[in-house]
Amino acid sequence: MAPATPSTHSAISLNINGEKRTLSVDHRTTLLDALRERLDMTGTKKGCDQGQCGACTVLLDGRRAVSCLQLAVAAEGREITTIEGMAAGDQLHPVQQAFLDLDGYQCGYCTPGQICSAIAVIEEHAAGWPSAVTDDVRPEAAPPPLSADEIRERMSGNLCRCGAYVSIVEAVARGAAETQAMTSADLPQTEEAAA
Amino acid sequence: MTTVTTGTRAVKGSVGTAHTRVEGRDKVTGAARYAGEIPFAELAHGWLVLSTVARGRVRSVDTAPVLGMPGVLSVLHHENAPRVETDYPGLLGSAPDPTVAVFQHDRVPHMGWPVALVVAETSEQAREAAEALVVHYEEEPHDVDFYAGHPDAYAAEGHMPGVTAKGDLEPELAASAVVVDERYTTPEEHHNSMEPHAATARWDGGRLEVVDSNQGTTWVAGELANLFSLDPASVWVRSEHVGGGFGSKGVRPHQVAAVMAATALQRPVRVVMTRRQMFSLAGYRSPTTQQVRLGADADGRLRALDHSSLSLTSTVHEFVEPSAGVARVMYDADAHHTANRIVRLDVPTPTWMRGPGEAPGSFAIESAFDELAEKCALDPIELRVRNEPALGPVSGLPFSGRNLIACFRKGAGRFGWADRDPRPGLRRDGRWLLGTGTAAASFPAGAAPSTAAITAEADGTFTVGINAADIGTGARTALTLIAADALEVAPDHIRVRLGDSDLGPAMIAGGSMGTRSWAWAVTAAAGDLRERLALGDGIPPEGITARSNTTEAIGALAPKERHSFGAQFAEVAVDVTTGEVRVRRMLGVFAAGRIVNPLTARNQLVGGMTWGISMALHEEAVRDRATGGHYGADLAGYHVAAHADVPHIEADWVDDPDPDDPVGIKGIGEVGIVGAAAAIANAVWHATGVRHRNLPIRPDRVLMAGENA
Q1: Is the ipTM above a cut-off of 0.90?
Q2: Would the N or C end of chain A have less CB density within 10 A of its end CB?
Q3: CA-CA distance, A101 to B132, in Å (whole number)?
Q4: What is the dotted CATH code of the domain comprising B24-32+448-555?
Q5: Residue A173 contacts by C-beta under 8 Å, 6 or more apart in sequence?
Q6: Is the pTM of this model over 0.90?
């Protein structure tokens, strides 16, 4: 490594998948490059390095973000979740399992970004966020059904050049249903009855 | 010693049954490592510097200021780079594209030509220095203007004859009751695999090691050995996971530059293309302008077929996009002429891109057939039935299997084609005009010599070594199933190793020939292994290995017309006040040999059809005449279909095992895109009554056509 000088480098601490990682970074280093080149977390992919393809999607404080347009020094204090943080040990996240079972990929390079995006889409939808294809966008409206068109619209920031969109949409739908089933099962009986 | 178990419990039926990908877990968890992701100690980073002029000479490279920048280790350019050898036979026997021989001279043949590589300790340092490097040019006037009737065009052979001709066109056209004579164009298109090209090179104990993303390590290792005058055994290329290829991931400047820098610095060097650089360095599909003349009797039977295509190539290498080749397979006529011509311009060399020739060629010929059906007042499927040839129209050879009409019949039933009113411009859904269209597809089905080795391990499992490339096709999984059936064991007893040049020579992932070629070699090795295991001597700790080489068997194949076929159907909605075209549904039915893994095969065929949507409506690289470079050379300027552009697409197949292949395979990688854009364009005509003969069918084209109609 070149000698680090105070003017070009900073020591930072990143909270990644619930773990604190301390490192010194060049101020120009993107969060994407910090993950891939400095922390050997290569699950997050570089497809275009300019925010156009979605392959580098991670979650920042639970919301999706393209990590190639985020400087690592600016990610301090944020809760960063990458594809490596989605499974619970050997237990895949339902969205990961659905991608595997329904062949929601081909080459696999856009896949981590698609999965991170999908997990956030399911949460955004459940929280009532409308999309460009949502008919009723009034604040008091209930979330629309997570139809194939809703999934396509919300996932459109993640390109897949192999053209696996059809099976990705199926996988997101199944992942959403499984996530919802898990969430309902976790709810206490009384709350369910009240709803 | 272990008791031999194979053959005692026959397990068959893996081939033809849906299996999830064997590497699937690694891909959904982010554990699968691609070429730029393998760690190396003491790694240095190379950043390519590309020319900012479209033609001329490099006068000088101001390396001194850049060499003083933090972390910069070296600047390689034409005055100091290692010399390479380019006088050797390339992949198909022809000379290699000299584009890969970087930094050998001061000539600049196109915008974006590599003029230097800056190597630094970190990628940030390399990038800043590369952007700061001043290169002085002696600029010359350039010409990137591509148009029909170019005076410098000449007929050229690529992987097929440039020109074929039988019968006299003019008398047959004059005698025809119905004539279609139209020009069709397709734009410059780019592969844009999601994973950019990446290579890391290092010397290790006198051996060159390259970790790369490519469609065949046999190919890349062989060319690197030739370029650097090395013993082939001293070059080791690995490519385990590949983030898409589509024809672009062969030998490219990044590998050569990485090897040069690793040689000069004696430490590992990684070179990764940026997305923008890929538009100049990774190859692309040439634009085409195609003239189709069809003459037919009133009943639709062809008397004359004339398909002439013009594409472009660079000034340094001849590459032909053979769009007129598809007519040599699809349709016959007493007068049958086809020609592929090229013109040399100051542009990068184009290359194979998914469905080379067939993808743009089918847009022209299958659109023209729809126009002929309209003029003959015939159903487009019936028109194809009436023109179904018994033998190869040009070769006179029998087909190994055709089944095109079976695809149309199955597809028509499923799509609801029988209820279609052929008249255009009648159906409306709110602001949308609706229409349906169809087109035929074909792509050559071939096999190329490959070697394989299978080891029966002492623990009862089998290790298959075959230098295949899994670029997203599911090859690793398909070969697992093929080996399982050939050895009569369950797939979980099979371990497939691929993407490693030390495994021995094998076909690349290309030309829709990979799975068939590799499966043949695996099946042959398995047959030999089973014979040896049947001797019943038990398996020693090191296992028993059988090897195969299919060169002789493939060489003995009788000449035939061997192709996959298909029928494409599309329904579109067109808003003529905004110019928007939306594909509402698609169906493709294919005769593509035995389907090894229905789960991944369906995905790949649908992927090809998705490329058809992208080709029909979105993709277009625009070159600026003044600078010779692109407008918007990125994924915001070059549109590929996104989620919201792609509706539910169905792909299905008819039973069509290849009679001359040990497994019955043909190939599915490319046939899915062929005809898809024509089916969509034909549907747009059915919706609006306007023919679109220039791709992509952009909103402005729909609006302008609406004004003229």
Answers
A1: yes
A2: C
A3: 48
A4: 3.30.365.10
A5: A146, A148, A151
A6: yes
